[in-house]
Design goal:
By secondary structure, the chain is of the alpha/beta class. It folds into two domains: 308 residues, NAD(P)-binding Rossmann-like Domain (Rossmann fold), CATH 3.40.50; 108 residues, Dihydrodipicolinate Reductase, domain 2. The protein is 37% helix and 15% strand. It has 16 helices and ten strands. The chain has a six-stranded parallel beta sheet, sandwiched between helices. A hairpin with a 5-residue loop joins strand 8 and strand 9. It is globular and about 70 Å long.
Length: 443
């Protein structure tokens, strides 16, 4: 393509402020990791923005630059961090409590982490019942609280000399909520805020404040937050990108790899049983049935969307899918996921797959936070507004335009992600057809 086909992308000049909702295990692992990378003491393993390459043109051209050398991403050296949390611990204290990172990754940067103190949060135990916090905002109405968040955003930007901001939800899972009339329009939403309506959760107030201030918002939890009509309206009105929801880190990451394999080979599925043990703050929160319901909805939808049982009823029309999460404090942040998959093949003969996935939840989530900050900022500078479906790669319950089914297949998501970057920079899409390398009879 020519430069005329290239999308106009503003340069990544100046400082990028990354505002995090929540300063717990995920957020502190992300912040400490970035600082270790900046000092040359670590490698950003897991970050596509920092480590992945992207093929351009034909295979014979041998053009595969790093993504960060192809698109104008913000430099890690130009990132500054801020956060809200109902617990007053600074980033160093919080990281020590979380117990994810060893002293070798925390003690050399203790002064840096200690300087990141959480702003008082918008928090209500009604929505996260297993947590308590004293570092909490007060206001007569939810609109008052939202206006305080807007002021926080403006103050952070000014005090840190930021040119641009992004916001990422890294806080706990809220109780299950259903979309209602309060979420349909901006007028209805703001009236509900004024009336302290229970349908307006804290995460929604953060999303509202972020979009009102023209700041891209990514939702890393399964909460009903930015995936409601009012937020789509507001994103369009303010010309801001949004994405979500629920970081795809452990068990669901594997599902989005294995389920496409079964479907690609037209192998049937009878049942899929998944259970997890997790001991960090997230595990404690999910021990509450109402918060677990939110997470369960996020996890259960994956198989239906990938396997399309209505299209393949003989193979996937009667799947028994069960998901469990168990709070087990001794495991701390080292989550273990067990999967039992009962599938069948030729002539209906049964087979099984057993998976024992011992992973570190925040270690898998931290590079997702980094990439979302980088790519949401890129999308904003490229003038991309509303739902960023090309970032579905990072989410368990990816958002899609109204009327569209979300794409869950990890490999289709990756192709969509890279083709969006190629499109943005005026490069040809990669179809992997390759017929030009072979001789076929011309008709």
């Amino acid at each position: 393509m020519t430069d005329a086909n290239r999308k106009e992308v503003a340069p990544a000049d100046g400082k990028l402020g990354v505002l995090l909702v929540g300063l717990g295990a995920v957020a502190t692992t992300f912040i400490a990791g970035v600082e270790n990378v900046r000092r040359g003491d670590a490698t950003p393993v897991g970050s596509l923005g920092e480590m992945a390459t992207i093929r351009l043109g034909k295979r014979t051209e041998s053009r595969s630059p790093l993504v960060k050398d192809f698109v104008p991403l913000a430099s890690l050296d130009n990132m500054v961090f801020g956060a809200w949390d109902p617990i007053p611990d600074n980033a160093y204290e919080s990281a020590k409590v979380a117990g994810v990172l060893e002293a070798r990754h925390l003690d050399p940067i203790k002064d840096f982490l200690s300087g990141i103190k959480p702003i008082p949060a918008v928090f209500d135990r009604k929505y996260v019942k297993r947590l308590e916090g004293k570092n909490v905002k007060k206001g007569k109405t939810k609109r008052d609280l939202g206006e305080q968040l807007r002021e926080d955003i403006r103050n952070f930007k000014q005090q840190n000399g930021c040119d641009r901001l992004v916001m990422v939800w890294c806080a706990s899972t809220e109780i299950f909520l259903k979309q209602g009339p309060q979420h349909e329009t901006l007028a209805a939403f703001e009236q509900a805020m004024d009336e302290n309506d229970d349908a307006i959760a804290p995460s929604m107030i953060y999303a509202w404040a972020s979009l009102m201030e023209g700041v891209p918002f990514a939702n890393g939890a399964p909460n009903l937050t930015v995936d409601i009509p009012v937020m789509l309206e507001l994103a369009e009105q303010k010309s801001v990108p949004i994405s979500g929801k629920d970081f795809k880190t452990g068990q669901t990451l594997l599902k989005t790899v294995i389920a496409p394999m079964l479907k690609a080979r037209m192998l049937g599925l009878e049942g899929w049983y998944s259970t997890n043990i997790l001991g960090n703050r997230d595990g404690e929160v999910l021990d509450d049935p109402e918060s677990f319901k939110t997470k369960e909805e996020s996890k259960l939808g994956v198989l239906d969307h990938i396997l399309q049982p209505a299209m393949y009823p003989e193979l996937y029309g009667n799947i028994y899918h069960k998901v469990r999460i168990n709070y087990y404090p001794p495991r701390r942040d080292n989550k273990e996921g067990w999967d039992n998959i009962d599938f069948f093949g030729w002539l209906g003969y049964p087979m099984q797959i057993k998976i024992d996935f011992l992973c570190r939840d925040s270690i898998l989530a931290a590079p997702i936070v980094l990439d979302l900050a980088l790519f949401m900022d890129l999308a904003h500078r490229a003038g991309m507004v509303g739902i960023q479906e090309w970032l579905s790669f990072y989410f368990k319950s990816p958002m899609a335009a109204p009327g569209l089914d979300p794409e869950h297949d990890l490999f289709i998501q990756q192709t969509k992600f890279k083709n969006t970057l190629r499109w943005m920079m005026g490069e040809d899409q990669i179809t992997h057809l390759g017929v030009e390398y072979y001789e076929y009879e011309k008709v």
